[in-house]
Amino acid sequence: VQLVESGGGLVQPGGSLRLSCAASGFTFSSYGMSWYRQAPGKERELVARISRAGGSTKYADSVKGRFTISRDNAKNTVNLQMNSLKPEDTAVYYCNALVYSLNYWGQGTQVTVSS
């Protein structure tokens, strides 16, 4: 299983970023996918989750209405569209897959929201 994130960077408050995760090594369409984040000195937290076919999503309260998770099962990718970014969204963002009861993580991509 391999998960490779991209799309992080530095953005001003109120701006937008789109993160992508390219997955390989497993039957992507058979598993739900998630995005987590970890800020300095804090525990890793769930940001958003999407079901296998994309029909069901779940968000942390702190990002509801601002972030949108989506997936493309033909391309084996899962995306996180982040709008109205706030300084408190600054963190390393990780793509996650739970495959055969094992957690797999990407290397993470840094998102920094600052003026």
Percentage beta strand: over 45%
H/E element order = EEEEEEEEEEE
| Mass-distribution shape | globular
The biggest sheet amounts to: 7 strands, mixed
In round numbers, the mean pLDDT is: 97
Radius of gyration, taken over Cα atoms and rounded to an integer in Å:
13 Å
Describe this entry's structure for a reader:
It contains no helices and 11 strands. The chain is an all-beta fold and 115 residues long. A hairpin with a 2-residue loop joins strand 9 (91-99) and strand 10 (102-105). It starts with a strand and ends with a strand.
Short description:
0% of the residues lie in helices and 53% in strands. The protein is built from no helices and eleven strands.
Key structural traits:
mainly beta; seven-stranded mixed β-sheet; single chain; 115 residues; 11 strands
Set down the secondary structure blueprint:
Layout: E1 2-6, E2 9-11, E3 17-24, E4 33-38, E5 45-50, E6 57-59, E7 67-72, E8 77-82, E9 91-99, E10 102-105, E11 109-113
Parallel strand pairs: 2-11
Antiparallel strand pairs: 1-3, 3-8, 4-5, 4-9, 5-6, 7-8, 9-10, 9-11
